[in-house]
Amino acid sequence: MKKVYRLAVYEIVNFDEIETLEGAEYELVNVIEGSTPGECLKKAAALYDTDRFAWTYAY
């Protein structure tokens, strides 16, 4: 059985109201699947900007 990696993508919902990420509120927007952690990261980077979105390590 082939391993499937998942990476959760979150949007910073109060982006315009915060000065640091410590005060950020996140909302899950997508779970990306791939055959390797690197594939998951490439897909996330292609779809979402790193200013308004954050993601987990692939698991």
Tertiary shape: elongated
Largest sheet: 3 strands, antiparallel
Please give the order of strands in the largest beta sheet.
2-1-3
Distance between the termini: 16 Å
- Beta-strand residue fraction: 25-35%
Helical segment count: 1
The chain-level structural class is alpha+beta
Average pLDDT, rounded to a whole number, is 91
Number of strands: 3
**Parts with pLDDT < 50 across at least 5 consecutive residues:** none
How do the helices and strands follow one another from N- to C-terminus? Answer: EEHE
Into which percent range does the helicity of residues fall?
10-25%
Spatial extent as radius of gyration = 13 Å
Q: How many structural domains?
A: 1
Structural summary, described in words:
It is a single chain. This protein is an alpha+beta fold and 59 residues long. The chain has one domain. 19% of the residues lie in helices and 34% in strands. Strands 2-1-3 form a three-stranded antiparallel beta sheet. It is elongated and about 45 Å long.
Summarize the structure.
The protein has 59 residues and is of the alpha+beta class. It has one helix at 37-47, and strands at residues 5-12, 26-34, 53-55.
Layout of helices and strands:
Blueprint: E1 5-12, E2 26-34, H1 37-47, E3 53-55
Antiparallel strand pairs: 1-2, 1-3
What are the defining features of this structure?
59 residues, alpha+beta, 3 strands
